[in-house]
Write a structure and sequence with these properties.
CATH superfamily: Galactose-binding lectin
Number of helices: 0
Structural class: mainly beta
CATH topology: Jelly Rolls
Radius of gyration: 19 Å
Number of strands: 19
Largest sheet: 7 strands, antiparallel
Shape: globular
Order of helices and strands: EEEEEEEEEEEEEEEEEEE
Oligomer: single chain
CATH class: Mainly Beta
């Protein structure tokens, strides 16, 4: 049985000895987190409380602007905060007061490394022994499909998304605590989760859609926020302030890119100035409480 890490939030992390992915808790309580390598009982870290998302703050009309962390609770109205307009040096007007909003340009990422394309249908990642699983809070009436007690398998897409025929799909309903999540651990050694080095990666990119519009919290636990990193303890409630970004999911397939620079620590616990991408344990897609929704994730990759 693999070692589990107690957690208050959902996280993603890689171990120093875990290698570079560019080359290579079954606990239902909000404090339970972990994962399984190749066994039926899988687990991850749970999340407590409501988090925050991101607000796009506009720059001048002559530039792309900057993205800064803001607040979007996952169980809120399902929408991201509106862009905040900047000033316009050409018109003399204020972009936020009726002028054209600034255009925020995303970096162009030209290199990518697939973590998993789901086409083999099983729970194991493409190039490592890491695997997918689901986790949930303790709500007695909560239902999650597939059930976490069984090995996770990919779902056949009908219709297919282009050349993609399978995706990681989870359906949740009735959860009243922190909610439920779909996620994966990157690597195991002797049944213990290991942190991995994200190498040159600057972002995580994936495709997502939902049965109805919702907000999902993407989390990357690392050595600073996961108890296995040895820098925090759950006894002090210092762990699980995982690095997080909320994103919107619609009813049509859409590609989403989460830049590592956009991740924020928005849960209580041990906070540090910068995200350590050399020691990341896994990735989680957290669906907040009071929702009945199906969320599908496909073609997860690291990009730079």
């Amino acid at each position: 049985m693999k070692a589990r890490a107690l957690a208050v939030g959902v996280a993603l992390g890689f171990a120093a000895c875990g290698g570079n992915p560019f080359g290579t808790s079954d606990d239902d309580t909000p404090n339970g987190m972990g994962g399984s390598a190749n066994e039926a009982g899988t687990s991850g870290s749970a999340e407590a409380g409501e988090g925050t998302g991101a607000v796009t703050t506009g720059g001048s009309a002559n530039n792309a602007g900057e993205a800064n962390g803001g607040a979007t609770p996952p169980s809120g109205d399902g929408g991201m905060p509106p862009s905040v307009g900047g000033s316009s040096s050409n018109t003399g007007g204020d972009a936020g007061a009726g002028g054209e909003p600034p255009v925020v340009m995303e970096p162009v990422f030209t290199m990518s490394k697939l973590i998993d394309d789901m086409e083999d249908g099983n729970k194991t990642l493409l190039e490592t022994n890491g695997d997918w699983f689901v986790i949930k809070d303790e709500t007695a009436a909560g239902v999650i499909t597939p059930p976490k007690e069984k090995p996770f398998t990919m779902t056949t897409l009908t219709p297919a998304r282009g050349a993609s025929t399978k995706a990681a799909v989870v359906t949740v309903s009735g959860f009243l605590g922190w909610g439920a999540a779909l996620g994966f651990d990157f690597l195991y050694a002797n049944g213990v989760r290991q942190p991995a080095d994200l190498g040159p990666a600057l972002a995580v990119r994936f495709w997502a859609k939902a049965s109805q519009a919702t907000t999902v919290r993407f989390q990357l636990p690392n050595a600073d926020t996961d108890e296995l990193g040895g820098k925090c303890t759950t006894a002090e409630k210092a762990c699980n302030a995982h690095w997080t970004k909320a994103f919107n999911v619609g009813t049509q397939w859409q590609q989403t890119t989460i830049q590592l620079s956009e991740l924020k620590q928005d849960l209580p616990g041990r906070h540090v100035p910068t995200f350590d991408k050399q020691h990341v344990y896994g990735a989680f897609f957290v669906i907040g409480p009071n929702q009945s929704v199906t969320v599908s994730i496909d073609d997860v990759a690291l990009v730079h």
